[in-house]
Design brief:
about 725 residues; Immunoglobulin-like; alpha/beta; six-stranded mixed beta sheet; single chain; globular; 24 strands
């Protein structure tokens, strides 16, 4: 066996995989297409389970660093930081894997193939799984997805650190309760302009090892068996050479709900022939009969299994222990003091300051001797972590973080205030059964910190345990339960109120914006989130997050949830004024562009330069954002095409340069072709998008430049 061709390290990984597959029987090959692939003892092939998760930390397999949820990571607008987070995740993944392998543990969530990141577009704030994504913008989602993948897969010349997976391909963002039968109808223009770019970036720039298909149909084709998506686009246009996995038990939907096939054999034939290599589920056992019936060629299964073993070869799973550099990573690398400190730092960078009237923040404990902390999320662990989470060795809620930060300099008085979504805390109590306590705490306090919002029991994946609305989607964007009632009572008390929102999606907090002087959005801030929020509240850190999603004013302005047309959705297509726009976020310092310039041409690319000055009293960070508006009729509003996070000390300047390739000016026409058209292209360089609401909230507008393209219309 030691002389077997698949163990010959002088051969390429694919050659070794082909040699191994060539020794297998049909039955052995078929069972290797299941996510829980069994051992083949006669060939020395160990059992392997492909199903593992690492959305914001190694998940579902014991202790690991639990970083902020993906939507919070996106709010950092920081590619470098995302890559650093992913590198820590992959280090812990290797440390846990090496330990588990030593003890013969090959269970689910114990492998090195991680089904992350989720780069679906968060097109509607009601979607329960939106907090798993990097937000509503294709460009930002692609950039952050690529950074995450690179941090996960590593930069070794030979081996992958772990294998990442871009999901869910494609055109998938709810509704959750219909996903097994839903047909997402989308135009060629929206498909190419909105739903595919992040996946394309993950494949062509990030070189992601795996792609996961979605549950739904897209334009009538089941995504996990779609010729258009899997064969024509993914492998044909983009040249993807990794493996494709189905979502879990998605294949049975083909014949049970989508009705695109008649039975199990037709289902597995459609999926396998379309290029779905791995089945999360058990449907692929029917491949044996499908081959006997002539529905699938054995060579097609050979190709799929070769792809799967190529991934395992790249991970070094068939090489001698010690030959792979990542074998040296021990379990001691998991949940270290350094990773906890990094987690706190990362969490700080995700917090978005939405409002800071009269500069009430940061809070000075010399001014406030009694601080009230009120709200159902103040001491809610679930609201720290979101979903697809690991287990932290320490959870620090916002209440705990505030207590640590204040110490004995002020008294902290606490009330839950209300249930997160019900009308009473105690089942036998009357509605609003904490009203008296809320009033008492407010009356005692010099200032009140209200911690409200959501938790993953209110927004998540269909079937998640404890989901209040069954499907996982939100019915609307309002604060649930009595939260707004409690906030109104607090405002009526006459004490200053600071609102901290925890949650994974946009909330319609128009009343709060009008009546509460300071508002922070901390998302699901991770296991160290309470300390990070306190760092922001008391000025130990300067907020630098930007919104990766639009906050709408009302629920009524949202299009129908099942309508996948982008018309009226997200900052790129909306006509109404946002409450808080995509790309917006305040700082304790004014870090403003003094000047900007654009050189170059549409057809050859441009360089955007800016000089920023920190005129505030805090060191801080700012995200320079570049937006482009095409003259093509029906094109999106000005959309993000460049960004760079920069740090500057107070009273200091910093120079920024961002390059845009000609592709940044192209938009997709009705035929799904990316084109340049003659006319004037607007380029905006600043710290926000160029909409009127952003300019009003920030007090500064991006610099506008007009570039003319006089050439003929052309595809790019």
């Amino acid at each position: 066996m030691n002389n077997a061709a698949w163990l010959d390290e002088t051969k390429s990984f694919r050659e070794r995989a082909e040699a191994l597959v060539g020794e297998m029987t049909l039955e052995e090959k078929v069972f290797q297409t299941l996510f829980n692939a069994p051992a083949i003892e006669r060939l020395g092939v160990p059992a392997y389970n492909y199903w593992n998760e690492a959305l914001h930390g190694v998940a579902r397999a014991g202790v690991a660093t639990v970083f902020p949820q993906a939507i919070g990571l996106a709010a950092s607008f920081d590619e470098k930081m995302i890559s650093e987070v992913a590198d820590i995740i992959s280090t812990e993944a290797r440390g846990k894997f090496n330990m588990q392998r030593d003890f013969g543990d090959t269970d689910i969530y114990k492998g090195l193939t991680f089904w992350s990141p989720n780069v679906n577009i968060f097109r509607d704030p009601r979607w329960g799984r939106g907090h798993e994504t990097f937000g509503e913008d294709p460009f930002l989602s692609g950039k952050l997805g690529v950074s995450f993948i690179r941090g996960m897969q590593g930069n070794d010349d030979k081996y992958m650190k772990v294998a990442a997976c871009a999901k869910h391909f494609a055109v998938h963002s709810g509704p959750e309760d219909q996903r097994h039968r839903f047909n997402a109808v989308v135009s060629k223009q929206d498909l190419r302009e909105t739903y595919l770019p992040a996946f394309q970036a993950c494949v062509t720039e990030g070189h992601v090892e795996a792609v996961m298909g979605a549950y739904n149909r897209t334009n009538g084709e089941a995504c996990c068996g779609s010729k258009t998506l899997l064969r024509d686009i993914l492998r044909g246009e983009w040249g993807f050479d990794g493996h494709v996995t189905s979502d879990c038990w998605a294949l049975r939907d083909f014949h049970e709900f989508h009705m695109v096939t008649k039975n199990q054999e037709e289902t597995v034939a459609l999926a396998m022939n379309s290029g779905c290599d791995l089945n999360c589920g058990d449907m692929y056992v029917h491949l044996l009969q499908a081959v006997r019936d002539g529905l699938v060629e054995e060579s097609t299964i050979d190709r799929a299994v070769t792809r799967l073993f190529t991934t395992r070869m790249k991970l070094g799973l068939f090489d001698r222990k010690g030959e792979v550099p990542f074998d040296a990573i021990s379990y001691a690398s998991v949940d270290t003091a350094e990773s906890r400190a990094k987690n706190r730092e990362v969490s700080r960078k995700t917090v978005v300051l939405l409002k800071n009237e009269r500069k009430i923040l940061p809070l000075n404990t010399e001014r406030y001797h009694t601080i009230g902390v009120i709200g159902p999320n103040a001491d809610n662990r679930k609201a720290l972590v979101g979903n697809y989470e690991g287990t932290s060795s320490e959870y620090v809620t916002v209440l705990q973080g505030i207590r640590e930060a204040v110490g004995d300099r002020a008294r902290i008085v606490y009330s839950e205030g209300c249930h997160l979504f019900k009308d009473r805390v105690q089942g036998l109590g009357r509605p609003n059964d904490r009203a008296a306590e809320v009033r008492a705490v407010a009356d005692m306090s010099d200032i009140v910190i209200a911690v409200m919002g959501l938790d993953p029991g209110l927004e998540g994946e269909e079937g998640d345990q404890g989901n209040e609305f069954a499907s996982g989607d939100k019915p609307d964007c309002s604060l649930p339960g009595l939260q707004e009632t409690i906030l109104k009572e607090l405002v009526d008390c006459g004490k200053p109120v600071v609102l901290v929102l925890l949650g994974g999606s946009a909330l319609a907090v128009s009343w709060e914006d009008e009546h509460i002087p300071a508002i922070l959005d901390a998302w699901y801030p991770g296991a160290q989130g309470g300390r990070a929020v306190a760092d922001i509240l008391f000025g130990k850190a300067n907020p630098e997050g930007k919104l990766p999603v639009t906050f709408y004013r009302t629920n009524e302005e949202l299009p129908d949830f099942t309508d996948y047309s982008m018309k009226g959705r997200t900052y790129r297509y909306m006509k109404n004024e946002a409450l808080y726009p995509f790309g917006y976020g305040l700082s304790y310092s004014e870090i403003l562009p003094l000047q900007a310039s654009v050189t170059g041409s549409v057809s050859e690319g441009v360089t955007c330069s800016a000089t920023l000055m920190n005129i505030g009293s805090f060191d801080g960070a700012q995200t320079v954002q570049v937006y482009v508006k095409s003259p093509l009729a029906g094109a999106p509003n000005a959309q993000l095409k460049g960004l760079k996070k920069v740090y500057t000390e107070r009273a200091k300047q910093v120079e920024v340069s961002i390059s845009l390739a000609p592709e940044a000016f192209g938009v997709y026409n009705e035929n799904g072709e990316r084109v340049l058209v003659p006319g004037e292209y607007e380029v905006y360089v600043g710290i926000s998008q160029p909409d009127a609401r952003s300019c009003k909230l920030l007090g500064v507008a991006p610099k506008r430049f007009v570039l003319r393209y006089d050439g003929a219309e052309c595809k790019i």
